[in-house]
Design a protein that fits this description.
Structural class: mainly alpha
Oligomer: single chain
Strand content: under 5%
Order of helices and strands: HHHHHHHHHHHH
Radius of gyration: 18 Å
Largest sheet: none
Helix content: 55-70%
């Protein structure tokens, strides 16, 4: 059904695979990740996340540089479904010197992921100055969610990043700490 010419049939097949929930179906979906129909492709991206099909992570992240706004939202949702592993991989891509030309696309993706990105971003702060980490903190500020500050608090115990975390929480502003 995934090879059917009719995109509506392919879309229903992807949704059915998602409802069945078999992780083994992930490989079949991965083969069709570059479906020509954008709705089918977005559903495949979401379903791979729902299935937490780990072998798809790198292929999903490879879509980021050329993704439009709708695909970025879908990729962010999929990576949130993967949890820390998916988000960590996105942060590694963002931070990679090999991806410097695509850094803006990965930054947009991380902002779309939302507050769950905070622990992964904080994980890459070590060994760098606040100046070197300014773009990382910009992501945290642009998420604009009180959960970011809450997720940062445990990192105050880590001497290597504590000062930067304090500075970042300050930059988040009172709305992040005293959310109403």
């Amino acid at each position: 059904m995934l090879d059917e010419n009719d995109s509506k049939v392919r879309l229903r097949a992807v949704k059915l695979i998602g409802k069945i929930g078999e992780r083994s179906a992930g490989s079949a979906l991965l083969e069709h990740l570059n479906d020509t129909d954008s709705k089918v492709q977005r559903q495949i991206i979401l379903t791979l996340g729902q299935l937490q099909y780990e072998p798809a992570l790198d292929d999903l992240l490879d879509l980021t540089p050329s993704a439009d706004e709708s695909q970025i939202r879908t990729l962010a949702s999929s990576l949130r479904s993967f949890g820390k592993e998916g988000i960590d991989r996105a942060v590694v891509r963002f931070d990679s010197p090999l991806e410097s030309s695509n850094r803006g696309a990965y930054k947009d993706l991380l902002i779309r992921i939302g507050p769950d990105v905070a622990p992964s971003i904080i994980g890459i702060l070590k060994g760098r100055s606040f100046f070197e980490n300014r773009e990382n903190f910009e992501i945290l500020v642009r998420v604009k969610n009180p959960r970011v500050a809450k997720l940062m608090i445990p990192f105050l115990e880590d001497e290597e990043v504590a000062a930067q975390v304090v500075e970042a929480i300050g930059r988040l502003g009172s709305g992040a700490v005293n959310a109403t």
